[in-house]
Amino acid sequence: MSGVDYSKWDKMASEMSDSDDDNGNNPEVTTFDQPQSVTFGGTSASQAAEGWDGASDDSGAHPDTTPSSSGVAAPADGSTGAVAAAATGTTPTPQVKPLISDERLTENGAAVRGDANAGRQALQYVWRQTRAEVVVVVPVPAGTRAGDVEVSLRAKPETIAEGVADLIRVAVKATRGRDGAASRELGTAATAPGGGTKLVPVLEGELAFQAKLGAEDEGEVEWELKDYPGTAVARDDPDSSGDPVGSAPPPAPAAGAREASSSSNGDRRGVEIVLKKHCPVPNAAVWWKSLLKGGPEIDVAAIKGRATNNHQSVWEEALGMFKEQVAARKGQPKISVDMEEGDS
């Protein structure tokens, strides 16, 4: 049997090696003076935008959270502080820059992401609380002015006489340019028939617990429009004609509104709303487990500094105050009642 000529295979191997060299596919080695980190794999909730730290991705996920099977992202450290909905992979409508789960913004509260597939403004907010107050921050498009925002608190018909608020609504004006394109990044839901402006709800629902609302302040609430850290963008979005949207004098802010005097370098604008907690028991505290009914809940037992063993003392103090009020009523005679044991 004749021998096999392997020379042609050597030639092919040599050509393939030369081709790889020509295409520049050889590995390159790069050295760094400082420590670096590398992440492999596809896009996930943990690889989403840095939020308020300057990234431009609109997924709204927090880098310190990991997705759970329930669809709610849990903090990576296992704490119960911030609760955020997991990224869905679908571009939210409208496209508003996401908020971050900053510890200062979510202290004793949470960061919540709404349904990105909803036809209207997806619910997206962060909230925090103290013993007396709940502070909510709702993101709005860059360039939004205080006169473009409407914030209202209302009582349900059955609680109007109690001076408490049960319902909250935050809406933003969406302007329409001459080319018919809706601005303010509020999506097609903001388009008003024939042009003009339309109020688009960005947060709306029933509060998980009641907030204080005086009879004279029906519908008014303390709120402020603020800029949060981010990459630099213009305050106004130009339409196709080149004219800046909102170049006309802005409308006057609503009652109770205040616009922070900050630079235009922040691309994250938020409406910060302060709610005064309503507590029916004097000297007691109501810790909210969620902002809205049906919303993601936190573990109030994990709140730092929360007294969990003084319920009896609070009750006794409240009962003592009640007895003093009853005894102090004018015209109320004191009645001595003898208590006798019954026959055994």
Layout of SSEs?
Blueprint: H1 7-22, E1 65-66, E2 72-75, E3 84-85, E4 110-113, E5 124-129, E6 133-140, E7 149-154, E8 164-174, E9 198-212, E10 222-228, E11 268-276, H2 311-327
Antiparallel strand pairs: 1-2, 2-3, 4-5, 5-6, 6-11, 7-8, 8-9, 10-11
> What is the number of strand segments?
11
Average pLDDT level = 63
Q: What's the CATH topology label of the domain at 94-100 and 117-318?
A: Immunoglobulin-like
SSE run: HEEEEEEEEEEEH
Strand content: 15-25%
Gyration radius over CA? 30 Å
> Gap between N and C termini, in Å?
125 Å
Strand order of the largest sheet: 4-5-6-11-10
Q: Which stretches are low in confidence, meaning pLDDT under 50 for 5 or more residues running?
A: 17-22, 39-96, 119-123, 177-185, 187-191, 231-253, 261-266
Helix content: under 10%
Number of helices: 2
**Reported CATH architecture of the domain at 94-100 and 117-318:** Sandwich
Global shape? elongated
Task: Give a quick account of the main beta sheet: strands, pairing sense, barrel closure.
Answer: 5 strands, antiparallel
Classified by CATH, the class of the domain at 94-100 and 117-318 is: Mainly Beta
Q: Would you tell me the structural class of the helices and strands?
A: mainly beta
Could you give a short description of this structure?
This protein is mostly beta strands. It has a domain at 94-100 and 117-318: Immunoglobulin-like.
What does this structure look like?
The protein is mainly β and 344 residues long. The protein has a domain at 94-100 and 117-318: Immunoglobulin-like (Sandwich). The chain contains 2 helices and 11 strands; from the N terminus they run αβββββββββββα. It has helices at 7-22, 311-327, and strands at 65-66, 72-75, 84-85, 110-113, 124-129, 133-140, 149-154, 164-174, 198-212, 222-228, 268-276. The protein has a 5-stranded antiparallel sheet with strand order 4-5-6-11-10, with no helix packed on it. The protein has a 3-stranded antiparallel sheet with strand order 1-2-3, with no helix packed on it. It is elongated and about 120 Å long. Mean pLDDT is 63; it is low at 17-22, 39-96, 119-123, 177-185, 187-191, 231-253 and 261-266.
